[in-house]
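Dear colleagues,

As part of the handover before I leave the project, I'm documenting each prediction I ran so the next person doesn't have to rerun anything. This entry is a single chain, and its sequence is reproduced below.
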Amino acid sequence: MLKIIGVTFLMGLFVVSCAPIAQSNGNHGLPPGQVKKMTGAKSARDYTPGHNK
């Protein structure tokens, strides 16, 4: 019985650890082009992830 519980726990841990993690880029989940339209900016460059210029 203890072996079954241990295997079930390990399998659950494996499934949870492989789940994708959503990362926000500060745009509330919207793509850069949509944020550009909402703000009225001329370029979507400022809203892309990893763009620090």
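The helical segments are 2-17, 32-39. The longest helix spans residues 2-17.

All the best with the project,
I.
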